[in-house]
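User: Predict the full complex structure for these chains.
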Amino acid sequence: MKIKDLIKQDAGFQYIIDSMEFMSPAGRRKTLNTEFCTDADTLTAEWQRLDEAISATLAFKFKKPYIDLRHCLMQLHDLQGTLASLANHTPLNEVELFEIKNLAQLTRTATGAIAGLGMSEALPLPDTTEIFALLDPDHTGIANFYIYDSYDPRLTPLRRELQALQASEGDPLRISDLLAQQNEIQCEVCLRLSDQLTHWTSTLVTAMEQLAYIDSLLAKADLAIRWELTKPTLGDHIEYTGLVNPRLKQRNEAAHLRYQPVDIALYNGVCLITGANMAGKTILLKSVGTAQLMAQCGMYVPAGKAVVKLVDGVATSIGDDQDEMNGLSSYASEIIKISNILSSCRTATLLVLIDEPARTTNPIEGKALVQALIKILNTMDSFTLITTHYGQLGAHCRRLRVKGFVEDLSDMPLTPQSINRFIDYSLTEDPTDSVPHEALRIAAILGCDNELIHLAQESINQ
Amino acid sequence: MPFIPDILNHRSLAIVGLEKNTGKTVCLNYILHRLNQMNIPVGVTSIGVDGEQVDAVFATAKPEITLYPGTLFITSEQHYLKRQLLSVIKHVDSQRTSLGPLVTAQVLIPGKALLSGAATTAVLRRQIQQLDSMGTRLTIVDGALSRLSLASPTVTEAMILATGAAVSANVKQLVARTKFLYRLICLDEVDPELRNRLSIIESGLWAVDSDGQPHDLGIASVFLIDRAETDLLRYGRTLFASGAVSDRLLRVLAAKGKDITLITRDFTKLFITPEAYTELTRRGGHIMVLQRSRLLAVTLNPTSPQGYLLDSKSTCDALSDALQMPVYDVKKIEQ
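Assistant: Here is the predicted structure of the two-chain assembly.
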C-alpha cells in the first residue's frame, strides 16, 4: 500500500501529509507513492537519512547550501512525460530540450549544495555534466536554450540573411522561405539531440527521482522539526510516551484549550479500553493508527518516545466513515468491516483498531459479539485495541481505563467547551471487569433536557 | 507619437477591448514598434488565448504580433513552437495550460508570434513580476476576447481601451457603449483610509457605518441578495461588495432606498448594464471604487468584422467629445 491509498483510509494521516511543505510537485508525488514498509532494515536506513536531514536542516536552515538546495527543488519540474518520450525514442522539441538542460543544471547545483550539507553519501546524485555539455554547445554555463548556430553549419548564414531581411523589411516570401528552412534544420537538430540523449535516459530518470526524493525527505525533516516528532525504535511491542494527535493538538491550541498527550503500551493480543464518554478513547485509537502509518512510511512519530513493532498493515473499524451512504446500516457496515479484519488477521500480523464494536445493536447480543471478538483476536498474532462501554465481559485480556473526570464536579460551573480541563486523558491498568457509569452526568453537563435525565436516573434506581 | 510617453510612466499596461475585433492587436503592434525604436526593453504576455492567425469566431484574418530583438515574451509551448522568429528559452513554468506549459523567451531575430497566456489573474500577476525581475521596463498584457479582469489595478498599473465598429456599426450606440464603460473606469475612489480597511475583506456584502467601520451583513454572495431578509441599511447607506456586482444587486439597492453608495474593488468587478446603473443613479445612488484604473488612451478600429467601415475621423471626434479625452485610430497614426 502506498501513502496515497493510506490517506484515503485515515483522515489523520491525510492531515499529516497535507501539512508537509513540498518545494515541487515531483516531491509531493514521490511522497504519495511511498510504500508502507514492513522491512526493518529499509526503515532503519530511511529513519537514519531523515535523522541526517533534520540535523542538516537545523544546522543550515538559513545558510547557503540549504537555501540553494531548496531553490533548486523549487525549480524542479516533473518530467515523467518527457523522460518517457525519450525512452520511447520520440524526438523532443525545443521546450522539452530546455527542460532536460534545466534538470541537468539543477542536478549539478543540487550536488554542490548536498555536499555543503555533508550529505553526499546519504543522497548521491548522478553526474549530469555531459548532458549539460551536449545542450550547451557554446559553453555559456546557463540553462537557457535554443537551437544554437553551432549545432549545424547551415544555421549561421541562414540566420544572418534572415536578420538582414527582417531589419530592412525585405521580401516576405524570402523571409518565409528562410523560416521554413530554419525550421527544417531545427527539427533535424532536435532529432539528433534526442537520439543522443536516449543513452542518458536512466541517468536523467535517476536524477529527477532522486531530487524528488530529496524534496520529500526535506519536507519530512521540516515537519519533524516543526511538530517535534520523534524517531521510533524497533521493538517487539508498541509503546508511546506522550502520544499526540497533531490535528487535535493544533485545534486545541488555536482555541487556547489544554492538550494532554497520552502514554500507551500495546502487546501481542487484545487490549480493551474503557472510560467515560468524552474521555478521548476514539481519538486515542486514531492516534495509535496514524502514528503506526507514519512510522512505517519512513516518518517520525508524534510522541515523546516511541517503540514500534512492524506490522503488515493497520486495520480499523472506527465508525465515522461513509459506508452508511452505500445503503448499509451502521451495524451492517461495521460487521462486514470486522469480518474482513478477522480474515486478514489469519494471514498477516496487523495492528487492529476497533471502536466500540456492536454498539448499534441490542446489548445482549452486542456483548456476546464483543466477547467472541476478543476471544478470536486473542488467538491471532496481531496487536488489537478495542474500546467499549460494555462491562462484565468476562473476557481474558488486558484492560486499560481512561482515568476520566478528575474530581467531583457537582459544584463546578461546566460548559461543553470547558469540560476538557477536568478530564484526565491518561490510561491506567484496570483489573476489574466494570465500566464507568457517567453517561447521565455528562449529559447533564452538556445541558441535556432535565426530564430526560431525571427519568433515566429513576429507571436506574429501580 | 501619441500616448507612448504616458505608457513609459508605468511598469505594466493592459490592452483591453470592449469587444472582439476592436483592434487590440493593432494597438499592441503599434506600441511595440514605437518602443523598439526607442530601445526600451519590454515584456509581453497575455491572458487566455490570443494572437490567433485567423479569428476563431468570425474567421477573419488577424494581425499577428511582431516582436523585436531583446523583447521578453511569454506564450504556451504549442504557440512557442509555431513562432516565426528566433528566440532563446529563459524559463518554463511548472503550471500547465491547455496548450502546454508557459514558456518565457527572449527574441534574437525579430518576427511574428502567437501569444497565449495564463488562465487566471493570479498567474498573470506572477508573470508580470517575473518579467519585471528579468529587466523589462514595461510589461504589456494583451487581453483575450472581451475579458476585462487583466485591467484591474491590482494586476496592471495602466490600461488602454480599444473600441470600434465591432461594438456597433451605429456611431451613436458605439459612443454610448464606450462611454458607459468609460464612466465605470473613471468612478471615484474612496479615501485611502477606507480603502485600507476594506481591501483586506475577502468575501461577502458589508455595510460601512458613519465612522467608516465595516460590518458583515452575513450575505455570502450578492447573488443571494434576493433571499436576504436582513435590513441591508441598518448601519447606514454605504455598502461594500467585495466580489462581483450584478444588475440584481443594483436593482435591490435601488429599491431599498435613496442615496445609496455602493463601493466595489475596481471597475472589473462590475458586471452591470447601463439600465440598472441608471436605475441606481436616478434614485441618488452612486458607485465608488477602492482603486481606480489609469486609462491612458482609447483607440478606435473603424472596421467591423462583418465589413462595415465607419468614418475614422468623425467617429474619433464623436468619441473624443463624449469622453473628453483623445481617441486614436492607430492605423491612421501609423500611416
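The radius of gyration of chain B is 21 Å.
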